[in-house]
Amino acid sequence: MSGVLQCIFQIPSGKSCALANDKHPPSNFRLDGKTAVVTGGGSGIGRAIALKFAANGATICILDTNKEDGAKVREEIAQAGGEASVHPCNVSSQADVKSKFEEIFRQGRVDILVNNAGVSHIGTVESTTEADFDRIFRVNVKGFYNCLQACVPHMKELGGGVILNMASIAGTSGIADRFAYSMSKGAAIAMTYSVAKDYLAHKIRCNCISPARVHTPFVDGFLKKNYAGREKEMFNRLSQTQPIGRMGEPDEVASLALFLCSDEASFITGVDYPLDGGFCNLR
What we know:
Layout: E1 6-10, E2 16-20, E3 35-39, H1 44-55, E4 59-64, H2 67-79, E5 84-88, H3 94-107, E6 112-115, H4 130-158, E7 161-166, H5 179-198, E8 204-211, H6 217-226, H7 231-239, H8 250-261, E9 272-275, H9 279-282
Parallel strand pairs: 3-4, 3-6, 4-5, 6-7, 7-8, 8-9
Antiparallel strand pairs: 1-2
Helix pairs in contact: 1-2, 1-8, 3-4, 4-5
């Protein structure tokens, strides 16, 4: 019979009762029929998001400065039966971004934009040079702006879309020796709120994720460069800065990204999600 509930949980008496019906079918955050642009999709968190979205039905457009890394992710997606394309791009260049997005638009629609490409820097305001500051700003702030400006008009024409910006707990918490990086991630959070507010009527949702430390190739490279011979010791020390006792994994970030970009999150916009192992509230 249509609408009959099917058993999925145990009530206190020990009898089974059902909760899925025709009006509220079960869902697993699928992205079938949607196209997602993922900047910095060739490695780390961006790679994890590209793979996760593709595994859940999305067509992926990878924007990355490293064409080879992007091609490897595209091949991973293809081998798993998915569809992806690679578009070498420097997000800090507005001309390059516009050109790549026009190329993508000619192929079809874009439903999801994940602003993930970014660079890091260690230093206080005194040790941060003008060149350091400009580099962080160009990639982490202007890069997001360039992609937003290129994609938002397209989403308006389509009648909606989803934007996800990758921020950081450094944007809202005091982190030592992260002056320029913290500035840029604070800007990412502010841009998220602004875009979410400005495009409510156009059905464009915009949220951001603020991870704590996540174990990516960048972390391994940083430890090798700055703590040669002490990599394991420093990795453990950095892991313990999260109250949960470890670093996050890129796939964990990708899982939250999948939810926020799915239709199941259609009531969520203008939110900064800490994914921090308890860092903000429990340290």
